[in-house]
Amino acid sequence: MKLKVLGLLFCSAVVSAQNIQNNPGSNHGNKFEQLGTILPTPNVYRTASGSPGQAYWQQRADYDIEAYLDEDKRNLKGSETITYYNNSPDDLDYLWLQLDENQQSTVKNADYPFSSMLPKITVLENLKASELPVSDNGYGVNLEKVTDASGNPLKYVVNKTMMRIDLPKALKKGEKFVFKVNWNYNIPNRIEMGGRGGYENFPEDGNDLYTMTQWFPRMCVYSDFHGWQNHQFTGRGEFALVFGNYKVKMNVPADHIVGGTGECKNYEQVLTSEQLARYRKAESANEPVEIVTLDEAKKAEKNHSKQRKIWIFEANDVRDFAWTSSRKFIWDGMRVTIPENNNKVMAMSFYGKEAYGLYRKFSTKAVAHTIKTYSEFTIPYPYPVAQSVEAANGMEYPMICFNYGRTEKDGTYSEAIKNGMLGVIIHEVGHNFFPMIINSDERQWSWMDEGLNTFVEYLTEEKWDNKFPSKRGPAWTIVDYMKLPKDELEPIMSNSENIARFGPNAYSKPATGLNILRETIMGRELFDKAFKTYAKRWAFRHPEPADFFRTMEDASGEDLDWFWRGWFYGTDPVDISLDKVTIATPDFGAVPKSETVKYTVEKPVLNEFEDVSKIRNREDKNIKFYADTDKDVQDFYYRYDRGQEKVDTSKEYNLTTGNLEKLGAKDIKKENNVTAYQIDFSNKGGLVMPIILEFTFEDGSKLNDKISVQIWRHNEQKASKTYYFDKKLKSVQLDPMRETADIDTSNNFWTASSSSEAPSKFQVFKQKQKDAARGASNGKVNPMQAAGKK
């Protein structure tokens, strides 16, 4: 089927110019103005293109750490030697370190209170929480000794969750400073107290599972854009950290299994011969191999060894180090090869028996799938290890992350738990890229790691299973948040501590914005090239928002300032209204045509709505979905869904494939019954966006068109577009695939049957011509005279 369509003969600029004359000063804000001075001025460190400048620099810190885990006292004792390299052009008189564990203390924390109100029912816990003065709960870092490399004491000051070390003399450019810190702290019960690190106790078997995070004094970032990043740690805004090399020794009970950032250097000393043999087998396996078996883990739970073992790990070019320790762990692993750099990575998982039914089946395969998929969209995964640990929470560190996902006691699980677990594993493993490698400042800009990571998580979930029920990424899923009153919203470009609705603001809205850019505004080819360019430019560096914005434009040739201004710096929603359709029947002009592509949409089962990304991914023959190739992943829910579902061919979406082609004036004379339709739109939400239309004709055929966002550039409130069709139009649907996050779809539809428009001036003119023509045929009046022509 080919429909002949005519675009607007008088371009939208003419319509806009008329509106400007009619409403001087009321139509044009600043939605299309360049960001200009909103962004920092480019310099020798950061260029106007978004790339690191010729004089870019960053600091480095190497760590040599020894830790002693006292399981009986639930205490960690540590000593570290830090070698700090000053690569900046500045002389430094002092150094700043983070003592994040102080956030668990009642007297050393950052002191960022929230408003409080009288509870409806007063209980003992409320009274205890409001006691004055606040007593010391015994948590937080206890500093034992801070010295230089020779053992001489260094002067230091602790300010809540930060520590300043005053140097004996200025540390000049190109110099390094070596110092030592000894400390200890009581490990908190993270299930009861919250937080990212601590222990979880399992009363049924009397064992603990330790996740050791933010566990050592760590250097703050000193940068060209901020100086010392020494904002306090409140428990929300995460971390700004320095790259370096780590050597870490963990002294733990002999029956514990340890996983950590980097590679273990002494498996021969800490594993049994059987476990070591299984590990060697896993190094070349294509399927997960149990290195520590379920039976071995159950047996270990019953005996609490008083002997000790030391596990030694090393990691290079990482910004942090985390580890886990427990006798409860089952441990499996397999080798995955990253095609882009031929890097052979050990993908591994650690989990208790409570998670065996899910983690044994899914976790390590999800780890492997994640690092392979992220490598396609960003940079090739550079590290030797990637690990997932079941710890009833979600948090990320270089090469290791903590996730949730436990079965019922009988080993069964629900579809919701399975998909939730997979989403968390993909998300947390994905953080290896954002911010562990592309090392943004989480303490200031949560969206630069959470939002960008959530976006690639969505792409990865899609490539795991086209029916995966992603909650963040598709445009339609952000609508409820965008509908909120303005006093409940903040711009994405807000400091982490000041955001009221952290999840939608830092995760969902940035991810959705990037998906809209990729699918609707830029197109996949332009977007993917620009996004990979950003990842490549800023891998193992410290990017800022301007570096991202500028790179996306620099590598794509698209002016996106309007989008950054509206989506990232503003809170306006998208609400484009299809206000009016005016109908006329001309007999002149050029008729363009459009080639169309049909998409057959399957009936959604796992998803409330089949978004445009899912449809396009199914049509892309180059995309292979992991779930379709792995029989172990195809569990009951997968088979049930595919077995019961049938293709629903009642829905077809016809998407235009290129610019409309105009026909010559002589061709139009061959056309009969051409009808013109002027469609008027208004921007009720405030955020400009492309206008996407689906036309349905009386014969049942469909046609789609997308109008560039630039139609709003001269009038940000109103726009009009005229089409000429050789078939009668039955209805018009605005944004049929819900890909712009339009918050009100009730004003997105027009039908010919509901139209009661008064005849336009052009229709009146045409009717007069017809009447005059009829009169002339009866010998009355010349048609041209009737039309006022001489």
Overall pLDDT metric: 87
Number of contiguous helices: 19
CATH class of the domain at 579-584 and 672-758: Mainly Beta
- What is the share of helical residues? 25-40%
Determine the strand fraction and express it as a percent band.
25-35%
Contiguous uncertain segments of 5+ residues = 1-26, 588-605, 644-671, 776-790
The computed structural class is: alpha+beta
Draw up the topology in text.
Elements: E1 3-6, H1 12-22, E2 60-70, E3 75-85, E4 92-98, H2 124-129, E5 142-148, E6 155-159, E7 162-171, E8 176-186, H3 190-193, E9 198-202, E10 207-212, E11 218-219, E12 222-223, E13 227-228, E14 244-253, E15 257-260, E16 263-264, H4 267-270, H5 273-282, E17 289-292, H6 294-301, E18 308-318, E19 323-326, E20 330-338, E21 343-351, H7 356-377, E22 385-390, E23 395-397, E24 400-403, H8 415-430, H9 447-464, H10 479-482, H11 502-521, H12 524-538, H13 545-554, H14 561-568, E25 576-584, E26 592-594, E27 596-600, H15 612-619, H16 636-644, E28 652-656, E29 661-662, H17 665-668, E30 675-683, E31 691-697, E32 702-707, E33 718-725, E34 729-734, E35 749-751, H18 761-777, H19 783-786
Parallel strand pairs: 2-14, 21-22, 22-24
Antiparallel strand pairs: 1-26, 1-33, 2-3, 3-8, 4-7, 4-11, 5-8, 6-7, 9-10, 10-19, 12-13, 14-18, 15-19, 16-18, 17-20, 20-21, 23-24, 25-30, 26-29, 27-28, 30-33, 31-32, 31-34, 34-35
Helix pairs in contact: 7-8, 7-9, 8-9, 9-11, 12-13
